[in-house]
Amino acid sequence: MPTDSRDGARRREPARRVAPKRAAQPERPASRRERRAEARAAKRQSREERNAAPTPRVAAATVAEVPVPRWARPLFVLAVLAVLGGVAAAALAIAEMGPAWLDEASAVTISTTLTFALAARTGGRPFVFGGLALGFGLAAVLTGTETLRGGAAVLTAVSAGVLGVMATVPAVRFRGALREAVLALLIAAVGAIAVIGYRPVVSLERFDYLTLGLAFSLALILVYRLGAGFHGLGRRGLFVVLVGTTSLAVTMAYAEMLRRYGSQEMIDGIYDSVGWLRAHARAVPRPIQVLVGVPALVWGTHMRARRRQGWWVCAFGTAATVSVAGIMVNPATGWLEATLIVLYSLVPGALIGYLLIRLDLAFTGPRGRRARREEEAAAIRPEPRRWHALL
């Protein structure tokens, strides 16, 4: 049968052989050297990004912006003017200038303003508590009853002591924490001036114990709300609270135990040392302020910039703030000696607080100077501003 020439000329192409598909081979795991190289590259890239990014301002890192009512600023200015006027009236009364009731008027004004400020700071009802403080102060001054005068003095000391702690803000560095401790003591000193203006006739030991117990209890109640309850403590916070409570109890009980059970030679030696310090340094620091109060304020405000457990530490700062009123009430203590007592207690107490901060950072913070600076820049736990409500 004849065939087409074109079909004959066409060569048959050989059939293509398709190679069978191979199964996918698993990827070879990276060697240890490759993993190290990738980790170094990622670390180098993150360091370059950190250096290129602008560093946030540390001072503004711990302040939360919250809406403020319109009436807050005028009321704040009025409260500041009232406190300044009360302090000026007390200064005139101390200098024996003006009417005899000037110190009592300053006491009522300052105590009412401080109570109002404490209620506003802690999210309470400032007009209600301020009105109650005003009524109680007027009743104590107008009736002249020793019981009412003593009660007004105690409540004023407690309000000023707790307000001094609540008015603090978180501090990223030590110098900021020292500033907060000084501010708390200044607020307590203003309250102590009002305490003297009520002219209380009290037992010094009972006054110290009562004011410290009430102030510490009130601070714990407020901190319970600010620190998110006991479950916000954690192991570290629970340990700090137990150590602080033990230190406070031992410091308070030491003098009483020494007075009752100490030998006469030991007591005479202590009195001689105190007399020598008063003769040469003009004052003697208070142990409860040095060992508990001031270190708690310094360390607590520093911790609050990083963890909310710092509020529980700050509660022990009432041992420093309330003691200012106890120093002022003592009729044997002059104005210069009272000022020096607070100053002599502040310096070693701040040193102990600095050591506690360094110890805390040694266990929980990063190592190295650069790493510490980065940690300070990252300490951005926000809180409301100083004169805004915390709750």
TrEMBL record:
User: Which domain of life does this protein belong to?
Assistant: Bacteria
Which controlled-vocabulary keywords does the entry list? Answer: Membrane, Transmembrane, Transmembrane helix
Q: Give the start-end ranges of region Disordered.
A: 1-57
User: What stretches pass through the bilayer?
Assistant: 75-95, 127-145, 151-169, 181-201, 207-226, 238-255, 311-329, 341-363
Presence of keyword Transmembrane helix: yes
Q: Where is the composition biased (Basic and acidic residues)?
A: 1-16, 29-51
Q: What is this protein called?
A: Uncharacterized protein
Identify the species of origin. Nocardioides guangzhouensis
